[in-house]
């Protein structure tokens, strides 16, 4: 296959091409908040977002970044020999702080010689000129990736999930990040309430023609203590079973631009907070089933992608 043993352009494959070895991610917490929670954009946050700002696997904000990296490395390297890491600022909105605070956090992360990439999860409305200038500067030292939480292109769904910015803001952010050579990864959510398969594929088709380098396809997770969970209890919405999800993922993969690297294909919800779908907890099984489905149906990324 074009991407090693996989039928899609996986992050693993891409990293091995870049660094000739496996690279592991360390999820960090820079102690930030989010404008969609503190009142600048909204107060309730996105409807699905956990109290940890979607950073449930990140380190503790009580620890310095260097200490979080040290702990992350100790955990990962206790199981296997590892020499390369991605410092991934995951929790909350990781460009939402004064630029000098951001500089100190990012510089502390890239100071570790085994950190090969700085990856930053954020919102497209939190990339002012000063932040972009900082990212540009750091991108000349080590590669910088920025992950934007788009979730969907549809305005009705975006209003329901309380995303808090327009699609045009996303487009502007992608343009500005690409102008300074930053790798852009887009986080999408599949099976948001009210979206049909065609709606979800509209988001994929739209992203196929954007200048983005990576995508996360995240199955919607209902987590405890979220407004989404309250809605789910009152009016349970459709959540796919594993078979339905895998079949639809096959369609998404077939229609996805083969140049776009796939960073995620399932969910990554913390087991202790997950209400539904519970079958996603066994990630290995989901991926094995997906790989068998792709093989049986002779699907590969881009098979049905037409420029
Ligand atoms: S933008 Fe991110 S951190 Fe903020 S509420 Fe939404 S998902 Fe949570």
From TrEMBL:
One Pfam family this sequence matches: Radical_SAM_C
Entry superkingdom: Bacteria
Cofactor or coenzyme needed: [4Fe-4S] cluster
PROSITE patterns linked to this entry: RADICAL_SAM
Matching SMART domains: Elp3
This protein's name: TIGR01212 family radical SAM protein
SUPFAM superfamilies (UniProt xref): Radical SAM enzymes
Species whose genome carries this gene: Mediterraneibacter gnavus (strain CC55_001C)
Transmembrane domains' residue ranges: none
Residue intervals of the Radical SAM core domain: 18-259
